[in-house]
Amino acid sequence: xxxxxxxxxxxxxxxxxxxxxxxxxxxxxxxxxxxxxxxxxxxxxxxxxxxxxxxxxxxxxxxxxxxxxxxxxxxxxxxxxxxxxxxxxxxxxxxxxxxxxxxxxxxxxxxxxxxxxxxxxxxxxxxxxxxxxxxxxxxxxxxxxxxxxxx
Length: 151
Prior knowledge:
CATH superfamily: Protein of unknown function DUF192
Oligomer: single chain
Number of helices: 3
CATH class: Mainly Beta
CATH architecture: Sandwich
Strand content: 25-35%
Strand order of the largest sheet: 5-4-6-3-2-1-7
């Protein structure tokens, strides 16, 4: 038992000491299709538990056309937080068909409050805070990305 605890602690310490540059996120393009426009974003894709737990932590900036797409293996209630995240974000909660279900705008940096809708979903897109309002991205709009569109 002591050996297992030791291995757990060592694993946790090495996991928690990783910095953002040590995780190599897959890069991809997504399209956000609104009622009147389409916007292309360069995204980093967080697919593994390690990638999702790191997210955009420790970043000091995010370009206007960049974001991070969190993908979960199963539909589930997804709660996000802003631990060690230094920039305000808009969190766009997306169903398995790419439909935007909820947008939480201008999240507070470093806030530990879990946020998200009480609906089972497959993914979340994080972009710069305020950008969803500026681009008029709304609930019901569509995210075009193969994983979210039945492929």
